[in-house]
Specification:
Low-confidence stretches of chain A: none
Strand content of chain A: 25-35%
Largest sheet of chain B: none
Distance between the termini of chain A: 29 Å
Helix content of chain B: over 70%
Mean pLDDT of chain A: 86
Mean pLDDT of chain B: 81
Shape of chain B: globular
Helix content of chain A: 25-40%
Oligomer: heterodimer
Shape of chain A: globular
Largest sheet of chain A: 6 strands, mixed
Largest interface: A-B, 45 and 39 residues
Number of strands of chain A: 10
Number of helices of chain B: 24
Order of helices and strands of chain A: EEEHEEHEHHHEHEHEEHH
Low-confidence stretches of chain B: 286-291
Number of helices of chain A: 9
Number of strands of chain B: 0
Distance between the termini of chain B: 40 Å
Radius of gyration of chain B: 26 Å
Chain lengths: ~240, ~550
């Protein structure tokens, strides 16, 4: 479970995140939508401890990110939007490092890497240095690294960018499987068709404020009837 | 045309400069950097000024003062050419801006010329170290007139053109035709080792100049002046124009000097336009072999280890696999045991071994051994680039469940290990020479304190002013002022400690106890500073 209570963040005079409160319950996939510069990445960075909120509380499985950040960080796996990471290490070395940091036992990490590298089709390059990987391959490695410790919460920032169709499909299936196993999947995206297809709920943010938080079917009722998510999204964000 | 060229040059200069006065946040750091660079430059200029002044007096007494000006300007050209090789490689090939510039509707020639201007500005910096004191000594001692100073300004502006063009064309040719250039990592390592060899050579030359014998220097000048004159034709014209500034011969020489330099620039435009873009295409990122992993390939590879061990192992993998880090952080530690005796104490070392075997002068071995270790470990860039080296990877380490203190401990451990390489080699060498173990122990204990001190100081400096926003690893170590500050502080402290303690005359045991206690105490303070500053990491990459 993720809980944000009255969270604020400003950059100088610009309010990037304006008093937002959200609660994400287990067993669901949440899509985090918003135009460029709406506050999505800032919110995700605060949830993952990369940024300090100016005020408010962030709880990751009831662990306070401010007071108990190490325990809170153990609860989630995170796929960042940029794919530059330890470029001089090989794929295997990177995954081993992540597994060591999260205290994943040897047999479990071997099983997970074996299975996931097969699924994302990067097994044959794991012995190569990450600097030789394409953007998509780095993204696949980040995805595998983020779930090695089987986190209760999976946070992904624009995870589909750069992925080939096969990997996109594998990722969407994995997200569904995660939610099915009672975990929280929270991801930001600009691809509304994907959000429409796999999300149980969506959160729409613009200019740092939450405009909508709920199931897509309920969104239909509060806005123009029988619209696509794209039309509803445009209607919401244009009103601002 | 000129407008676009100026805009482009300004943009490229901003990319490569360590100064940024436009951004308010960077302004303070830039001012400190500027003052440090100016202080270093002044130090070198004063140093060279004194050498030139003494040499001029000697040459004046035998009526050969003119040779000094020609020789000095030629040496300045050789310096500019040598450093030009590195600046050219960096500005023309290592900077990533070319990827963004190529798609723009800017002519290739404009890109080449603007990049050339950037290298030329670095050339002026190199030129100032020798040419400013040289011309000033000459002008002041000879009470030269207005024409001399006017020619001097023109020479200062034009002199770097020929050596910089020469270095550009050589680098373009290497990049275009050498197979070495196809592998960026290998090229960087080779270039780095050459730079170290060059630095080593310069140090030996400086030592030779410091201890020079005027007769030998004169003989060298006379024997080699013609060769150097042919190598630097413009320097010869420049020197003659200054020597004959008060007559017609001066005008002829200055015109020849400027004319030849202009022809060289045109030649550069012609050759550069044909070579540069073809060579940049071949200059790719390093590649690693694509190895197919078998079904059981993970066996033995993905084994659980303690996270501190894993993080330290990552540090060393990165240090060894990144050419810029390898050359700047690891290789110097391996070379120091070789360089120190060659540069400073060739004769002293052999005498020292004899004395130490007889337990004579042990106290000075402990004291000055400590000072040398403090200086050496302080000049080790590993500590003072600890945080900077990670660049945007700090981002990954921030969302993972690692305590910031643990992260800093791994940085300290890495710095101390690399800082200890030299000490370890020196201890092994002395052990082989049968120096008593007790003496080695007395030397080793305070020396370890020195390594801990310099490592902690370096980490603190880099924690408070890291350079994490780089797009090329070279910038993290070479465009980072922290290693210079760390070297300066440790050198100063080593000098002060040596001077003060030498004058109070203690036994080896007492030197060991005193140094260990004082630096142990300082280390506790620095460690507490690190622990209290751990939250500085959260402010990075916000």
């Amino acid at each position: 479970m993720i809980k944000l209570v009255n969270v604020n963040k400003s950059y100088g005079n610009v309010k990037a995140v304006n008093d937002i409160s959200i609660e994400l319950k287990s067993g669901q996939i949440f899509g985090f939508l918003g135009p460029n510069g709406a506050g999505k990445t800032t919110t995700i960075k605060m949830m993952t401890g990369l940024l300090k909120p100016d005020s408010g509380t962030i709880l990751i499985n009831n662990k306070d990110m401010k007071k108990n950040s190490i325990e809170a960080k153990k609860e989630f796996g995170y796929v960042p939007d940029s794919s530059g990471m330890f470029l001089r290490l090989t794929g295997t070395e990177y995954l081993n490092l992540v597994a060591d940091i999260y205290d994943v036992p040897s047999n479990e990490r071997n099983k997970a890497v074996d299975e996931l590298s097969e699924k994302f089709d990067i097994k044959n390059v794991l012995g190569n240095r990450i600097q030789s990987y394409s953007h998509g391959m780095r993204q696949k490695l980040a995805i595998i690294g983020s779930v090695l410790h089987e986190p209760n919460i999976w946070i992904l920032d624009e995870p589909l960018t750069g992925l080939d169709p096969k990997a996109s499909f594998a990722l969407k299936e994995l997200m569904k499987q995660y939610a099915y196993n009672g975990k929280v999947v929270f991801f930001s995206t600009h691809i509304l068709e994907v959000a429409e297809k796999i999300c149980d709920s969506v959160i729409v943010i613009n200019k740092g404020k939450i405009l909508y938080n709920g199931e897509i079917c309920h969104m239909n009722k509060s806005l123009s009837e029988d619209n696509s998510l794209e039309k509803m999204f445009l209607e919401l964000t244009n009103d601002e | 045309m000129m407008n676009k060229l100026i805009i482009l040059t300004k943009a490229l200069l901003k990319e490569t400069s360590i100064f940024d006065f436009y951004d308010m946040q960077s302004r303070r750091k830039s001012i400190i950097r500027l003052f440090t660079v100016l202080a270093l430059l002044t130090f070198f200029i004063v140093f060279i000024y004194n050498i030139v002044s003494t040499t001029l007096d000697v040459l004046n007494s035998i009526g050969q003062k003119e040779i000094l000006l020609g020789m000095g300007l030629s040496i300045s050209c050789i310096f500019m050419f040598t450093y030009g090789l590195f600046f050219t490689t960096s500005v023309f090939f290592y900077s990533k801006d070319i990827e963004y510039l190529l798609p723009f509707p800017i002519s290739a020639l404009k890109i080449i010329v603007s990049k050339f201007f950037v290298v030329l500005l670095y050339g002026y910096l190199t030129e100032s170290i020798i040419a400013i004191p040289l011309i000033s000594v000459f002008g002041l001692k000879e009470s030269s007139g207005v024409i001399f100073w006017l020619y001097s300004i023109l020479i200062m502006l034009v002199l770097p053109i020929v050596p910089i063009v020469a270095s550009c064309i050589i680098v373009f040719c290497i990049m275009r035709f050498s197979p070495l250039a196809k592998n960026k990592d290998l090229f960087k390592i080779t270039g780095g080792l050459m730079a170290i060899a060059l630095g080593f050579g310069i140090q030996i030359a400086i030592r030779a100049i410091i201890e020079y014998n005027p007769q030998i220097l004169m003989k060298f000048f006379n024997e080699n002046y013609n060769i150097i004159k042919i190598m630097n034709p413009t320097a010869d014209f420049a020197a003659k124009s200054l020597i004959y500034a008060d007559n017609f011969q001066g005008i002829i020489n200055i015109l020849l000097f400027i004319g030849l330099s202009m022809i060289v620039i045109l030649l550069f435009g012609f050759i550069g336009n044909r070579l540069y873009f073809k060579s940049i295409i071949g200059f790719t990122e390093s590649f690693s072999k694509s190895v197919q992993i078998s079904q059981n390939a993970y066996g033995g590879k993905l084994n659980k280890k303690h996270k501190i061990f894993t993080l330290i192992s990552r540090e060393f993998k990165t240090l060894i696999r990144t050419p810029d880090y390898l050359i700047n952080c690891i290789v110097p530690n391996l070379l120091y045991p070789l360089m120190i005796p060659v540069i400073f104490f060739t004769n002293i070392i052999s005498e020292l071994v004899v004395y130490l075997k007889l337990n004579i002068y042990t106290e000075y071995f402990v004291l000055f051994g400590f000072c040398v270790v403090l200086f050496q470990s302080g000049s080790n860039s590993t500590a003072a680039t600890s945080i900077s080296r990670d660049g945007k990877d700090i981002f990954v380490l921030k969302y993972m469940p690692i305590k910031y203190k643990t992260y800093l401990h791994t940085k300290l451990a890495t710095s101390m290990i690399t800082g200890s390489i030299t000490l370890l080699i020196v201890l092994i060498i002395f052990f082989i020479f049968d120096i008593p173990l007790a003496t080695l122990g007395l030397f080793m204990i305070p020396s370890v304190m020195a390594i801990v001190f310099s490592s902690q100081l370096g980490v603190i400096l880099d924690l408070y002013s890291p350079k994490v926003n780089w797009d090329n690893e070279w910038q993290a170590v070479r465009k980072n002022i922290n290693p210079i500050i760390c070297t300066m502080v440790c050198s100063l402290l080593a000098g002060l400690t040596g001077y003060v303690l030498f004058n109070i005359h203690l036994s080896a045991n007492n030197y060991c106890i005193l140094l260990t206690t004082v630096f142990g105490f300082l280390n506790i303070i620095l460690y507490n500073v690190i622990c209290l500053s751990e939250n500085k990491i959260i402010e990075l990459i916000e």
